[in-house]
Task: structure prediction
Amino acid sequence: MSNNNEWDTANTSFIGVGADAGGDGALEGMLNPDGIDVTVPWVQDPEKEVWDEFLGPGAPRRQIVLLDQNLEKRFQQQYGGAMNNQEKADLLAAIQDLINEIVVLGDMNEDMILNVLDIIIVVNMALGNVDIDLNGDMNNDGGINILDVVILANIILTDE
Amino acid sequence: MKKILFSILSIGLIFCLDYSLEDVNPNSDTFGLNVGPSYFQSQGKLISISTFNNEN
Result:
């Protein structure tokens, strides 16, 4: 359970979900293999409710599930004791695809930053100078107007 | 550091998966906290990887 700097940890969380099987010794072994501390979060689901919800009832262990920004399952893969190169490549590609899909409300120029450049675009939309992009609809009322400009500006000002 | 506002489409909530369980890894930054995909989304990590395995 190590990233090894192979994926974008700024945009991606990694959580281990165990079944509370094997007792404390087994957990210790999972969290400290070969004397090296694993630092990712590890939770336990002894009733396998989360397992069943994510994987399906009675699903085999050793599976990875990716959720997108809408908490929808987009990737699921069963793997053996250690991932082979193809399995790892498939996982990394799936992660990057989801990161590439990330939409930030108000990020009109898609630079992953909210700043005055985005405000300018929303203002122009409100004035009718450019086509509407509902990613600037900050209050989700179906249109772009001064209210959206104010909301976006407040977000930017309070985050500085 | 700037925070980024995220919008979860309402229709996505119908199919969304999530959990909130206690982090039992003492080496983790969130040890003792209830964590899950949405917890880390609130911190800017929109994509989540959950790995399911028995402790052994």
Q: What stands out?
A: The longest strand of chain B covers residues 47-52. Residues 19 and 52 of chain B are 13 Å apart (CA to CA). Chain B touches chain A at residues 2-9, 12-13, 15-19, 21-31, 35-38, 40-41, 44-56 (CB under 8 Å). Residues 19-46 of chain B form one domain.
